[in-house]
Amino acid sequence: MKTEIEIAGVKWKNPVTVGSGTFGSGMEYEEFVDLNRLGALTTKGVANIPWAGNPTPRVTEVYGGMLNAIGLQNPGIDVFCERDLKFLEGYDTNVIVNVCGKSIQDYVDVVERLSDEKRVDMLEINVSCPNVKEGAIAFGQKASALTEITTEIKKHAKQPIIMKLSPNVTDITEMARAAEAAGADAVSLINTITGMKIDINRRTFALANKTGGMSGPAIKPVAVRMVYQVAQAVKIPIIGMGGISTAEDALEFILAGATAVSVGAANFINPYATIGVIDGIEEYMRKNHIEDIKELIGAVK
Amino acid sequence: MKKKTCAKVLSQICLAPGIYDMWLETKIAKDAAAGQFIGVYPNDKSTLLPRPISICEVDKEKSALRLVYRVAGKGTAEFSGCKDGDILDVLGILGNGYDLSLLKGKKVMLMGGGIGIPPMLELARELYIQNESLSEDEKSEIIIVVGYRDDKTFLRDDLERYGKVYIASEDGSVGTKGNVMNAIEAEKLSTDAICACGPMPMLRAIKKYAEEKNIPAYISLEEHMACGVGACLGCVVKTKEVDHHSHVNNARICTDGPVFEAGEVDI
Predict the structure, then answer these.
(1) At a CB cut-off of 8 Å and minimum separation 6, what does B230 contact?
(2) Average pLDDT over every residue of B36-43
C-alpha cells in the first residue's frame, strides 16, 4: 500500500500537512504528535520583519467553527531561521514555509533569505490572509496582481512555490489559472472565509478587527467545491484544506482532486487530529483495497 | 506533559445563581497547581473549542480537580447540566501558575473578584501547606480579599480555612460596599505582595496600587483562546518589553501566563 505523493518533485510520505498558523512551527504540538509522521509541516506565516498582529479579541467561536483575526503576528525571518528551522532540523518531514508580506519586495526578501536554507522544502505564498490591511489578500483577489507577485517570486525562489488562494473571490478558478500561468508549482486552498460576529450583549463586534477569517468543519463543503473546480481548471497539484478534522473529510478533498490535504483549525479542537487523519486514510485504503493513494486523487469526476 | 484526555464528573452543585462547583476525576490532576487552568470540551459538536477554566482546588489523592465556573455561554451552560458519572473531554494542564517560592516570608494578599475568586482557593491552600514545612520567618502571612456582586458569597467558608477573609460586595449586603480596593482602604490593609484574579478594571486598579506601593502583584489574565497551547496566538497581552518568544510586545496568555507580574504587562 502506497501513501506517498509528490508535488513539484518533492516527495511526501503521506498527503497530510497542517494549515499555516494552526500549528506554529510544530514546537507547541510535539508533546501531542510525532512530527515525523506528517507528510509535511507548514509553518505559521513569516515576514521579513516581526509583526505585532491585531488587537484582541483575536478569536471567537461560531457555529461549527471559529473566526480569527490574528493579523499574522510573527517574529520575523531572522528569528524564524535561527530558532524554528533549527528546531525542525531534528525531524524527518518536509518543511513548507508560509511567507507573508505587505509589498512584493517584502515577499521577495523572505524568499531570498530562505533560498539557501536546506531545511526548507517548499514555500507557500500567503496572498490570501483576510486580516491584514496592506498586502497579503490584496495580491490574492485580482488575477493581474496575483500574476505579478507569482512571476516576481518565481524569479527569486529556489524552492517550489505554492500559491495559497483566497475563497473570497467571485471565481477561484480564474485565480488558480493566473497562478499556474505565472509559474506557480502548486496551489493551496482555501484560506479562511471572511466573516463577522456581533456580540449582542455588549453590542459590539466579537473581534477587535470587526471581521475575521472563518475556519472549522462548517466551511468544508465550500472548500471541497472550490478544490473540485480548481482541479478541473489547472494541471498543477492542489493542496486542499478547509474544515478537515477526520480522514473522511480529507478523502473528500482527495477525491475532488487534491494531491495533499491540510488539517487546520481541527488542531485546536483535537491536538492529535493530524495522526487520526493519517491513520484513517490508511485504514480506508486497506478496507477498500486501494494499492496507491494516487488512484484516489481526483477520482470523482 | 499536556494531554487531551477524558474526565469523569464526580459531583456538581450550584453555588450561586449561574455559578457551578464541579469535581472532575482525571489523570491530569496530578500535574495541576494553583493558577493553572484546563480546557473543557463541550459534547455538543457545534461548539468545538475547549473552554479555559481555572483550577479551584486539586485533590491529588483522588486524582481530581475542582472547577468553579460561571455560565457564560453555550459551552458552560452544557457543563452546568452535567450529572455525576458524565464524561467530559479535557485538555491540560495548561499555563503557568503562581510561583509560591516568591511569596516566602511575605505578607501576601490574595485578591479575587467574582469568578476570579476560585483560583485563589487553591493558591491559599498551597500557601497554607507550604507554610507547614517552613520556619517561622519563611512562612507567608495569608490575607484574603474577595469581591462579590451581592450576598451570594461562594467559596467563603473554604477560603476561611486558610486565612483571614475580607469581603466587599457591590450592593453592600456583605462587608465593605464596593470592590476589593474599597475593602483594602476600609480595613486599612497593607501587604508585601499581591496575587490576584478578576475582571480587568480590578486588575488595572491592583496594578496601579502595586506600583504606588512598590510591591509585586502577580495577576492572572484571561482572553478568548483557541488552541490553549501557544500555537494560534489568539490570546495575547501587550508586554512592556519585547517578549522572548514572539519577538514583539505580545505574550501568550495561555502559555507564557496566565499569571504575569503586573509590571510586565500593559493592560
Answers:
(1) A24, A28, B245, B252, B254, B255, B256
(2) 97
Mode of pairing for the β-strands spanning B51-54 and B37-41: antiparallel
Q: What is the DSSP letter of B241?
A: S
Whether A81 is catalytic is no
Residue A262 inside a domain? The answer is yes
The alpha carbon of A88 is separated from its chain's Cα centroid by a whole number of angstroms, namely 18
Assign B1 a pLDDT band (cuts: 50, 70, 90): confident
Query: Looking at residue A70, what is its pLDDT?
Result: 97
Which pLDDT value is given to residue A134? 62
Residues of chain A contacting residue B41, judged by C-beta atoms under 8 Å apart: 269
Query: To the nearest whole number, what is the mean pLDDT of chain A?
Result: 96
Considering the domain delimited by B100-220, tell me its CATH architecture.
3-Layer(aba) Sandwich (3.40)
In chain A, how many domains are there? 1
In chain B, which residues fall in CATH 3.40.50.80?
100-220
Q: pLDDT tens digits for B142-161?
A: 999 999 999 999 999 999 99
User: Which residues of chain A neighbour B232 with C-beta distances below 8 Å?
Assistant: 21-22, 59, 68, 70, 268
Pick the CATH number of B3-94 from 3.10.129.10, 2.40.30.10, 2.40.128.270, 2.30.30.100: 2.40.30.10
CB-based contact, B244 to chain A, within 8 Å: no
The domain in which residue A146 lies consists of 5-53+72-194+216-295
In this complex, do A271 and B46 lie within 8 Å of one another by their Cβ atoms?
no
Taking the C-alpha atoms of residue A162 and residue A187, their distance in angstroms, rounded to an integer, is 5
User: The CATH number of the domain where A235 resides is what?
Assistant: 3.20.20.70
- Report the residue of B74, B233, B243, B244 to disrupt the A interface, i.e. the one with the largest count of A CBs within 10 Å: B233
ipTM: 0.94
In B129-184, the DSSP E strands lie at: 141-148, 164-169, 176-177
Q: Give the model confidence (pLDDT) of A33-62 as tens digits.
A: 999 999 999 999 999 999 999 999 999 999
The string of pLDDT tens digits covering residues A87-134 is 999 999 999 999 999 999 999 999 999 999 999 999 999 998 766 766
Answer whether 0.90 is exceeded by the pTM.
yes
Evaluate whether residue A34 is within a structural domain. yes
Q: CA of A76: which chain B residue's CA is closest?
A: B247
Domain with CATH 2.40.30.10 in chain B: 3-94
Q: Which of A278, A226, A217 is nearest to A251 (CA)?
A: A278
Give A118→chain B minimum CA distance, Å: 24
